[in-house]
Automatic annotation (TrEMBL), chain A:
A Pfam family per the record: EII-Sor
Topology of this chain in the membrane: Multi-pass membrane protein
Keyword Transit peptide carried by entry: no
Cellular compartments annotated: Cell membrane
Top-level taxon: Bacteria
Tagged with keyword Cell membrane: yes
UniProt KW keywords: Cell membrane, Membrane, Phosphotransferase system, Sugar transport, Transmembrane, Transmembrane helix, Transport
Record-given protein name: PTS mannose/fructose/sorbose/N-acetylgalactosamine transporter subunit IIC
Length: 260, 271
């Protein structure tokens, strides 16, 4: 299918919103959410959901940067990859994920560039404050997110609008490579899972990894079912730990904990 | 010496302004500008009749800052409580800076490595099954949870002051252990379900005879009998090993995986 100018503009606005949302911390800049918008605008939600889900899992471990580090950006698969899968024949959601990885990395560098360009911001803000120009101070304090919105719009708009060109480039990719990229796309989520495991997996929770594997592979329990089984153990652990703490602190006055 | 007093509403407003913490993110003071921006309306109320003082306070608070936005309200509430009682920035600064690191650690690990992956995996797998509203449900669950954390943290900071941080870390330890139990269970299950590796090789068994259906040996079927999802789990384990023990970055892993995937597909080993 062809992308119209109007569709390209809407996709640009959607990308701008989602990308800015990353700074707000509202989790819009995730492959699952980004591709959802593309699917609605292009009228192919089914393909978009597949693309979003596969990319979401693949990017899970490194889609969010801790402590101000910049990870590869899900706009790659979420916007560009999803557009590819929807508009181009022969591009599966899996191969779209592989094909869009270079974009994810390029956008990552772009974002680092924005932060670097903005390194002069504190000085500008400081100058504004010396003159007691509070409006200007606020402008400087908001400029990063304005840049994000602008860059997001351009990425989404140009990505959508140049799909024709991209599509010709992709058509040059031989069939064997496209098939290979589909296989690779099926394997990529392993990296996301491994990344997240490298943070969470400690000796005490190894049994739960086995439990999860057993439930999924042998019993075919759907993911919410697996989460419920995990929650049973988690609640048990929390309650047991709470009882120990209460026993220890029996003599002290215990604060009422109503925060979770 | 301070102007008007702050109301509970001012605290809540500052808490909600934690969303703006990264609006001015940059590589020289990170969230420094954002911190001052978050505090701006409350400062304006405290020092509004004295623009020089307001400018000075904002400038002070533009110094380097980097913490987790969801736990920031705890810090800003304490900050406001102290400022409201007439304390100067020099006195407040120690606590502000002392809280930055621990709350960044607790906050990032909880919000990015427990809550986000949990919702992400659940709703991605629903999307995979074609549930159209899964992305919206993801956004709702994620944001309601994070907003709740912000509000509770802001309230705690206002009511309890600085003595709370020790108790909080202790509690966070248990909560994050419990959360990793769910997380690890779910992620192991997902790795077994969503990483796709299928062996395409089949052998013909027996001699070719006219009119007799040849029996074939399907390697994938054999592997499935040994253990279902064996290859995906082994490959995930290999990735884990390379990340954790060899310190290989994700760039290389993505590159390696794409090359291996294409190569094995071309050789007809995987399909």
């Amino acid at each position: 299918m062809q992308i119209t100018l109007l569709q390209a503009v809407i996709i640009g606005l959607w990308t701008a919103f989602c990308y800015s949302g990353m700074l707000w911390g509202i989790f819009t800049n995730r492959a699952l959410v980004l591709s959802f918008g593309v699917g609605i605008v292009c009228g192919d939600l089914k393909t978009a959901l597949q693309c979003g889900a596969i990319a979401e899992l693949a990017f899970m471990g490194f889609g969010v940067g801790a402590g101000g580090t910049v990870p590869p950006n899900p706009i790659g698969p979420g916007i560009i990859g999803t557009l590819m899968a929807i508009t181009m024949d022969g591009v599966t959601p899996e191969s779209a994920l592989s094909l869009s990885i270079p974009f994810a990395v390029a956008i990552q560098f772009l974002q680092t560039a924005i932060y670097t360009v903005r390194a002069g911001a504190p000085e500008s803000a400081n100058n504004a404050l010396k003159k007691q120009d509070f409006a200007k101070f606020r402008l400087h304090s908001n400029l990063t997110i304005l840049l994000f919105a602008l860059v997001g719009f351009l990425l989404g708009f140009l990505g959508a609008y140049s799909m024709d060109t991209l599509s010709k480039l992709v058509a040059l990719v031989p069939a064997w490579l496209l098939k290979g990229l589909t296989v690779a796309g099926g394997m990529l989520p392993a990296i996301g899972f491994a990344m997240i495991m490298s943070v969470m997996l400690k000796k005490e929770v190894v049994p739960f990894a086995l439990l999860g594997y057993f439930l999924a592979a042998y019993l075919g329990v759907p993911v919410i079912g697996i989460a419920i089984v995990g929650t049973v153990f988690a609640l048990k652990h929390y309650n047991d730990a709470g009882n120990v703490a209460v026993a220890q602190a029996a003599t002290e006055e215990v604060e009422h904990d109503d925060w979770i | 010496m301070t102007g008007s007093k702050l109301t509970k509403k001012d605290y809540t407003k500052t808490t909600l302004r934690a969303y703006f913490l990264q609006n001015g993110f940059n590589y020289s003071n990170y969230q420094g500008l954002g911190y001052a921006l978050v505090m701006y309306p409350a400062f304006k109320k405290l020092y509004g009749d004295n623009p020089a003082k307001l400018a000075e306070e904002l400038d002070n608070n533009c110094e380097f800052y980097n913490t987790n936005p969801n736990f920031l309200p705890f810090i800003t509430s304490i900050h406001l409580a102290m400022a409201e009682n007439g304390m100067e920035y020099d006195e407040i600064r120690g606590i502000k800076m002392a809280l930055m690191g621990p709350l960044a650690g607790i906050g990032d690990s909880l919000s990015q490595f427990c809550i986000a992956p949990l919702f992400s995996t659940i709703f991605a797998s629903m999307a995979m099954d074609g549930v159209a509203i899964a992305p919206l449900l993801f956004l709702i669950c994620e944001n309601v949870t994070l907003l709740a954390i912000k509000l509770v943290m802001g309230g705690y900071g206002r009511r309890l002051g600085t003595s709370m941080i020790d108790k909080l870390s202790e509690k966070m330890g248990v909560i994050s252990e419990a959360a990793s139990m769910i997380g690890v269970t779910v992620i192991a299950g997902l790795a077994a379900t969503f990483v796709k590796m299928n062996v395409a090789i089949t052998f013909s068994a027996g001699a070719i005879e006219e009119g007799v259906k040849q029996s074939t040996v399907d390697i994938q079927a054999m592997l499935d009998k040994v253990a279902p999802a064996l290859l995906p789990v082994l490959y995930t384990a290999l990735m884990y090993y390379l990340i954790k023990k060899k310190g290989i970055t994700t760039y290389w892993l993505v590159l390696i995986t794409v090359v291996i995937g294409v190569a094995l597909s071309c050789l007809g080993i995987l399909a």
